[in-house]
Amino acid sequence: MANTFRQVAYKVWISDLLSNEYVIQQGEWEPNYVAVNGKKVSRTNIVAMVIDKQDSDMVSSIDLDDGSGVITARCFKENTKILKNIQIGDLVLLIGRPRKNNNNEMFLAAEIARKLESPLWAKVRKLELEKEGHNIKPVQVIETTSRQKTSTDEDSIVVEEIKIKSSDEDSGRLKIINLIKDLDQGSGASQSEIIEKSNMSEAEVEKIIHSILESGDAYNPRPNRIALL
Question: What are 73-84's pLDDT values in tens digits?
C-alpha cells in the first residue's frame, strides 16, 4: 500500500488562487496545485465571510469573500455535512483543495469548515499573511457587529492591540510550527521531541500546541504526535 499523507494547507488570499497558474499533475499520487510565491498550493487554509449559500441533496456550496476576491467552496454527496452548520454572514476558517470545473472556474473542494466567533480573526489572518510576505491589500472584510465603525484610527488601534498581545505568542508559535515541519517525517512530529528541541518549558509548548490544534492548523495523526494541515 502506498504511503499517504496530508499536504500542508497553506494560508493564502483568495486572490492568490484566482490570479495564479493552476497546474494539473499527471501522476496518480501527485495533486493538482496553484503556484503561489514558489509554493505548490494543493490545500488551502482560508479565513473569509460567507456571502451566499446553496444546498441540494447532492451538493452544498458557499461563496467566500476575504476582501481580496470571492470563491465558491463545494462539497458533494455525503460530505455536504461539512457545510451543514455554516450560514450566510458567518466568518469561517475553511480547509479545501483548489479545483477547476468544466467551465475552467476555480472553486474549493471543502474538507473542513469551522465558524469563527470573533470578527477579529479576519484581522489576525491579515497580519499573518503580511508577515509571510503576502502583501496584497484587500478591501476590509465586512464585519457583523452591533455598531458601525466609522474611524480608520479605531480600526488601527484594534489591530495594534492584537499585535501587542500576540507578539510573544507569535514568535513561540512560529518556532513550534517550524519544529513540527522539521521533525515530521510523514507520521507527525513527536510531542516530546518538540519539547526537547524547543528550549521552552513543557507547559509553554503544550499551550502552543493546543492553540495550533484549536485553530485548525494541525491535527493528531496518532496519540502524542502532531502534523500540520
Answer: 999 888 899 998
